[in-house]
Design goal:
It is found in: Membrane. The protein has 236 residues and is mostly helical. It has helices spanning 32-54, 69-95, 105-113, 125-150, 156-180, 193-235; strands at 6-8, 11-13.
């Protein structure tokens, strides 16, 4: 069970470590349910809309066939990533220095998430740099990857590989830096704040990118093999 908020530098807050100083901190006036409902509802809307879009008659893969379930889910993933990276993490990259005192909805979302990782509410250098790169590189590139698959652009698997590698690298550093800090920025073992916010919501960016890296590797390898054979036949 979570302990009650403590007072640090004269400002009460619910974050870990318990003596963390957050000058100017203002508690959320939005409930956890409101915040999570928004996040998952909008993410679900992006996922559902993209799923419907990839099932339309004009949506075909490079062989002129309908997208398979796996490919449709991959495209949906990039749509959700474009939203989360571009909007949610983009907000943090722009307003990280005022989030503790700001009552805008997305600032309150970050203050809620910070119960699982307080590095976000103190503008930790690593999180600011990592989220800025994620927002301004992987956000637009996720959107580009989405359209590249819908339009069957030759660069689609290259984009999938680049974005997935970037996501995997960022997630590994995210967990490893907190491991080095002894998991001191969350209540270790808390079912919601530690296991759901910190672990589950971030481990997705390890598991899914790994699958997509292997998928892109396989397709690019096949393409290179085909090119090599064509060149070989041309020279013979």
């Amino acid at each position: 069970m979570a302990k009650s908020p403590v007072r640090a530098a004269g400002v009460p807050h619910p974050y870990w470590p318990r003596d963390l100083s957050i000058p100017g901190y203002v508690a959320n006036d939005r409930s956890m349910h409101e915040i999570l409902s928004f996040l998952f509802s909008v993410s679900g809307l992006f996922l559902l809309s993209t799923w419907v879009l990839t099932g339309r008659k004009w949506a075909r893969d490079g062989r002129g066939q309908e997208f398979g379930v796996g490919r449709r889910l991959a495209i949906c993933w990039f749509a959700v990533c474009a939203f989360i990276h571009g909007v949610i993490e983009g907000w943090f990259s722009l307003y990280y220095d005022v989030i503790p005192s700001d009552q805008s909805f997305l600032s309150q979302l970050w203050k809620e998430y910070s119960k699982g990782d307080s590095r976000y509410v103190i503008a930790d250098n690593f999180t600011v740099c990592m989220e800025t790169v994620t927002a301004w590189f992987w956000g637009p590139l996720s959107l580009w990857t989405l359209f590249a698959f819908l339009a069957n652009k030759p660069c689609r698997f290259v984009l999938q590989l680049i974005v997935s590698l970037g996501q995997l690298y960022g997630a590994v550093l995210y967990f490893y830096t907190e491991h080095r800090d002894g998991y001191s920025h969350s209540q270790m073992g808390h079912p919601l704040y530690f296991w759901f916010y910190f672990v589950f919501m971030n481990v997705l960016w390890i598991i899914i990118p790994l699958v997509l890296i292997l998928d892109a590797w396989r397709h690019l390898q096949q393409a290179q093999t085909h090119t090599d054979l064509a060149q070989k036949e041309k020279t013979n």
